[in-house]
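Notes from the 1:1 (GR / supervisor)

We went over the backlog. Supervisor wanted to see one worked example end to end before approving the batch request, so GR pasted a single chain during the call. The sequence is below; no edits were made to it. Supervisor asked that the structure be written out right there so they could see what the output format looks like.
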Amino acid sequence: MEKSVSEAIEYRRSVRRYDAKKALNKKDVEACIRHATLAPTSSNLQLWEFYHITNPETLKELSTACFGQAAAATALQLVIPIVRKDLWKKRVNANLKFLNAQFEAQEVRNTKQEKMALNYYRKVIPTLYKDFFGILGLIKKVAATITGAFRPMYREVSATDLRVVAHKSTALAAQNFMISMAAKGIDTCPMEGFDSKRVRQILGLPKSAQISMIIGCGYRDKGGIYGPRFRVPFDEVYHKN
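Structure output shown during the call:
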């Protein structure tokens, strides 16, 4: 029986050593990756990919690229969320195709809602994501600053800003994945300590792809959790207005 959401959140810990005697079902992990893809994402662009690593040789190579840390070296499988901001045009077209199909199924066409939705992907998103060696991003940043002096304005318009947006969406998906795994009683550990160039080479990623994190997967071994959970006092991070 799977854990509830609250139980899964409480159960999830960063497990740094896994039990080699317990087999990990690939289909269970794949199902949790499917849950990852249901995470909220900026403008529904879904600028992510997920690499599910089960091949022993590839696992060994990636462990080396992760500096041999136990969470990678003992992982039965690895899941690597990849940020693909470069795929924005493809994702825009996918959204437009989906929206057009939805609107065509309706009896009433050419509504204000339809025009706004289609224009968002045809005009707004391309305006945000198009760039030329950072020059257009700088121009957009200046324009947003000037406009923002007179009215509320979306200001995260540079290439760096949009990179952060894509990473945030991918991180949300990664959390979906880890909570889904925890619900099945499977452990994970998100890692940021790795040689990104070597990982990119191992996976055959283009230079435009960025690695969000590497997630070790398996069942916790004795001592796999290094100590009690520590969190700063809730009152320090909770602000009510």
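Supervisor's comment: DSSP finds ten helices and five strands in the chain.
Batch request approved.
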